[in-house]
Design goal:
This protein has 478 residues and is of the alpha/beta class. The chain has 14 helices and 16 strands. The strands form four sheets. Strands 2-6-5-4-7-8-9-10 form an eight-stranded mixed sheet, sandwiched between helices.
Length: 478
């Protein structure tokens, strides 16, 4: 059946000023099509996209099974990128992100990727320019059909069952390199068979994997079976589409292990880039603080209960659906700021006695930001903080996921005895330059593997993915 193209939304200042200028001969608009070849029930007409600043792609890179990027030996190798040198020699590039509705750790990684690929289009399920503080307003943003529903950070979860289909429906045939930044469905896009696909994985889809049981336990008896069925489909879809990605990059060791366990795929760990130069030590006040999205799985209730019992000042920074419940648990020494600006975060961190991390973070960018501010971290002994915090030098860990364990750690630890210089030095190890060089090398290696094979190559596998009930159901787009 011939696939019928549909338009998707295009956003940003660039889109408002320019007409369409695709490098190939297809109709001048962004396409959405159904991943299984039929009509996409979600697709709706949208505005034509903006002209891209990308240089036209030579015709010969689109012929047959030809590799979509120039062969090894080109003048500029990604791995030679130094400082903020942009990468412009990989043809048309798509940076794919799950959703762009606010600014969290994953979105800051995307900003760094956007700097590395300055001419890339950004592809996402839904986009809110205000929620992302206009940080992506100068880029060409391609969205799914769900954009027409105008979801925001507080409301987008109502559409969770529809995002995988919507992402597969986005037409990525014009792109020669796809870089996905995924903690849910971004890695499930369908690139052209000629295109290389490198996924920077923040975490496998948590509602399908590591948070599945806890999420179901929090539901009532009526909704639990329905949600369990949806999650079962999510898990099957997630493990299936993971086999289409050429190369996975994990943001931490715990994510690497989850990728292997969930998808049966190998991955290399490259820690996220942290803008450590934004932060600096300052005068230390009396408060401790948390800095994260206010979600139940962040276990902020442990900190709220602990500091209420201790009678010590705690500043809970961030917003999210668990805020009302936490307010009900808090005593008079706990203050909630809601969402704050970057400048306010910088001031709160440099003046805090310590940052408190209660969740099992996949990496935990906030822990590095605290150390860049010269402040130590008090964290649950799990997840990515084990890779960034030096126990006894730049922070301390507590073991049990209960308030009493955190209370004992706070009472036994003197944050003022920690060297701010040692904290800053540790944070510097996670700066952007390291990320650029390491990620660029992975992209180069992926492209070279495809070039040496002459077409798409089989992804590296560490065994059968848990929960993968059938072979890959949907191939790359021809």
């Amino acid at each position: 059946m011939e696939r019928t193209p549909r338009q998707s939304g295009v956003h940003g200042a660039h889109a408002a000023r320019h007409g369409s200028a695709w490098a190939d001969d297809r109709p001048a608009h962004v396409l959405i099509e159904c991943g299984h070849g039929g009509e996409n029930p979600l697709a709706v007409a949208g505005d034509p996209p903006a002209a891209t600043d990308m240089a036209p792609i030579d015709d010969d890179v689109h012929d047959g099974d030809a590799i979509a990027v120039r062969a090894p030996g080109r003048a500029c190798r990604l791995a030679r990128a130094m400082g903020s040198t942009p990468i412009t020699d990989h043809g048309r590039v798509a940076l794919v992100h799950d959703f762009l509705l606010d600014l969290r750790g994953a979105e800051r990684v995307l900003l760094e990727l956007a700097g590395l690929f300055p001419q890339a289009d950004i592809v996402t399920a839904v986009y809110d320019e205000r929620g992302t503080e206009g940080r992506f307003a100068d880029r060409r943003i391609v969205t799914s059909a769900l954009q027409r529903l105008r979801p925001t950070a507080p409301t987008f979860r109502a559409l969770l069952p529809f995002y995988p289909t919507a992402m597969e429906a986005i037409d990525l045939r014009p792109y020669d390199l796809v870089v996905s930044s995924s903690s849910a469905w971004a890695h499930g896009v369908l690139p052209h068979e000629r295109a290389a696909h490198v996924c920077y994985c923040h975490n496998p889809f948590r509602y399908a994997w590591n948070e599945r049981e806890a999420t179901l336990a929090a539901r009532g008896p009526l909704t639990r079976p329905i949600l369990a069925g949806i999650m079962r489909r999510w898990r099957q879809w997630d493990a299936t589409v993971a086999q289409r990605v050429d190369t996975y990059v994990a943001n931490s060791e715990i994510t690497r292990l989850r990728i292997e366990r969930s998808y049966g795929r190998e991955s290399q760990v490259i820690h996220p880039p942290v803008a450590v130069d934004r932060f600096a030590p300052g005068a230390v006040g009396e408060h401790y603080m948390t800095l994260s999205e206010v979600m139940a799985h962040k276990r902020l209730d442990v900190a709220v209960r602990a500091f209420t019992q201790l009678g010590l000042p705690l500043v809970v920074t961030g917003d999210g659906p668990d805020l009302r419940r936490l307010r009900g648990l808090a005593g008079p020494t706990v203050r909630f700021t809601g969402r704050v600006s970057d400048r306010e975060v910088e001031e709160l961190l440099r003046s805090a006695r310590a940052l408190v991390v209660t969740a099992t973070e996949e990496f935990g960018i906030a822990a590095v930001e605290a150390q860049a501010s010269g402040r130590p971290v008090i964290a649950h002994r799990s997840g990515g903080v084990l890779e960034s915090v030096v126990d006894g030098e730049t922070g301390v860990f507590y073991d049990a996921d209960v308030p009493q364990s955190l209370i004992e750690a706070v009472q036994a630890f003197d944050p003022l005895a920690v060297s701010p210089e040692r904290c800053v030095a540790r944070a510097a190890e996670f700066g952007p330059q390291r990320f650029r060089e390491e990620f660029a090398a992975v992209v180069d290696a992926t492209i070279d593997r495809r070039a040496s094979a002459g077409r798409a190559v089989a992804p590296r596998s560490s065994g059968r993915a848990r929960g993968l009930a059938r072979p890959v159901a949907r191939a790359r787009r021809p």
